[in-house]
Amino acid sequence: MCALKPEEKPILLSSPTMHGEELEYINEAFERNWIAPLGFNVDAFEQEMSEYLSKRAFECNCLALCSGTAAIHLAVKLAGIGRGNIVLCSDMTFAATVNPVTYEGGIPVFIDSEYDTWNMDPQALEKALKYYDGRDSLHPKAKAVIVAHLYGTPAKIDELLYLCDKYGVIMIEDAAESLSATYGGRQTGTFGKYGAISFNGNKIITTSGGGMLLTDDQSAREKALFWATQARDSAPWYQHSEIGYNYRMSNVVAGIGRGQLIHIEEHRELKEKIYRRYKEGLKGLPITMNPYDSEKSVPNFWLSCMLIERGCNVLPMKIYEALKEQRIETRPIWKPMHLQPVYKSNNFFTVNGGKDDGINVNSDISVSNDIFARGLCLPSDIKMTDCQQSEVIENIRTLFQEV
Ligand SMILES: *Cc1c(COP(=O)(O)O)cnc(C)c1O
Fold this sequence. Notes:
Structural class: alpha/beta
Mean pLDDT: 95
Number of helices: 12
CATH superfamily of the largest domain: Type I PLP-dependent aspartate aminotransferase-like (Major domain)
Bound molecules: pyridoxal-5'-phosphate
Distance between the termini: 23 Å
CATH class of the largest domain: Alpha Beta
Low-confidence stretches: none
Helix content: 25-40%
CATH architecture of the largest domain: 3-Layer(aba) Sandwich
Radius of gyration: 22 Å
Strand content: 5-15%
């Protein structure tokens, strides 16, 4: 084992990795005095991202925005979600997947995870789609489904899309964590009617903060652009027939994105290497790594996560605390939405248990609860050296040997 120098700590979960081109694009923005929420970097970043996402014969229109959350919000608006509308959402995810539904007065209903990819369970989704079938006012027809691809692992897209088609609901993909991950060779975020990606500081590529809305529908992009730029009617004075937002990406920030996009595949490969090293290094312990469907999908391995076997008395928070003391950053799995105080009265569907209608409210038997209780996100920073990663692995191994 190699000895770490003091400056090789802390070991971070995921931090920005810059290359140099980013600064050149920023400099160009300064030199041409294009310091505004529009400009040549924004246009080029959208174009370059669109080419990247469309590589496999697919038309994708991108709209650069100030955050991934803004992209999800505009997707929710495009899907026509309004007051009282039911939206079926991934349960185990970051709150930004579902909050935009609430902004619009819609009602998020949560769908449990499955064990194969940790994403939305198609069987639980079908239960919810059957329940919210529009038969009466207590069972309004679900309006949309929002699926997140957790930690960069594609969800069971074929099955989820089939169900959305069958029941006539719109699919929105939250691909905030999964840029560069593919399913059947196609990029996540391009399957649903609308998709969202994020360039927040710890994502696989970053612009410091930012996001994009993805859609194959050119007129939907136009509408979203209108909302994102304060919904100005075409009049010489400021006239508004609709409520708008200030959601556009800055030309300076887009320069960072252009520089980062050049290196996306390199980032993905490094993330995968980290995942493989954990898998190898943690062998023999009662641990599995976050799973994926290796036949259908290629994750981007944004965060490597471990799942501790049932009945093991080493708990994730013990590892979290012990590693924190060693200045190694880990993070609990996203706390499921149905457990969040702000959403505690929203409905929640699981495959097993619950009432006859399939609804569980704050159930203890859900898969998301189980993964939340046994899982932990590990340092997945692509600047992490082999030596640093060995330090993480050795620290984890020690904790299991102590018991
Ligand atoms: C990061 C993230 C978002 C939000 O993206 P921002 O750019 O931070 O607004 C949404 N959903 C998921 C699953 C995320 O991880």
